[in-house]
Amino acid sequence: MAAQLLDGRLMAAQLEEQLKRRVAHLAQKGLVPGLTVILVGEDPASHTYVSNKEKACARLGIRSATLRMPEHTTQAELEAEIQRANADPSVHGILVQLPLPRHLDADRALSLILPQKDVDGFHDINAGRLCRGLDCTVACTPKGALYMLKQAGIPIAGREAVVVGRSNIVGKPMALLLLQENATVTICHSRTADLAAHTRRADILVAAVGKPRFLTADMVKEGAVVVDVGINRVDGKLCGDVDFEPVAEKASWITPVPGGVGKMTIAMLMDNTVAAAEKVLAK
């Protein structure tokens, strides 16, 4: 295998050690960071993800509360719980676990979270500030992906970066972050003509399409850095959006699935929560 691994497990563990020290410092000042997660329905993947968040909070000394609401929860009931968390000074971060059941308006729910408590970075104010290059809370997955590139010392400025996927959660903020690092950025999507012509130019290729093994070796430039954001389950096993083994023979660096960007997503959620608490202390 030619590519070096961007090891999310190792980087997340190293970041957690830093976060423990920051949490301990806050505790000395009489403040314990608090994260409230609102989970609606019985989606198995969401329950697993929330459980992992709870475990991370426990490791770091962050106060964690998970409000589990039934599938038939109304919009008014969901919004009332968000407002309660907004008003609670012991809560520094609020996260509404997505996806919500189809009858609920996720955009409206997310818009009600106070921007300073929006640790997912999905609020319009945080998204808008990111677009303008201002200080803000950044969505956890793209923030984690950028962190991995920088920790590995991978040059970004002046490089050709291609992001495959234009979601508000990953694709768009990932492109903006790379642009802020002075990469030349192309966003590709389902309507892109001749996708492979774009991906083969990429020095840094980010896959965020939600299709298992979608990006194949013939679509990747020799020596490219490949960041696989996808998490798919095929025949009971997890895989990414990248056809890992053949692509790893061409890439210089690659993130594995599992053990790559997914590990950094939760680490960055913890980082955002601690940062929100630090800002309260700084006031």
Structure summary:
The protein is an alpha/beta fold and 283 residues long. The protein has helices at residues 8-28, 44-60, 75-87, 106-112, 124-132, 140-151, 171-180, 195-199, 244-248, 261-282; strands spanning 4-5, 34-40, 63-69, 93-96, 160-164, 184-188, 204-207, 225-228, 232-234, 237-239, 253-254.
Question: Your description of this structure?
Answer:
By secondary structure, the chain is α/β, with parallel strands linked by helices. The chain is 43% helix and 16% strand. The protein has 10 helices and 11 strands. The strands form 3 sheets. Strands 1-11-8-7-5-6 form a 6-stranded parallel beta sheet. Strands 3-2-4 form a 3-stranded parallel beta sheet, with helices on both faces. The longest helix has 22 residues. It is globular, with a radius of gyration of 19 Å. The N and C termini lie far apart (50 Å). The model has no long low-confidence stretch (mean pLDDT 97).
Radius of gyration (CA) equals 19 Å
Percent range for β-strand residues: 15-25%
Number of strands: 11
Strand neighbour order, sheet with most strands? 1-11-8-7-5-6
Shape: globular
- Residues in helix, %: 40-55%
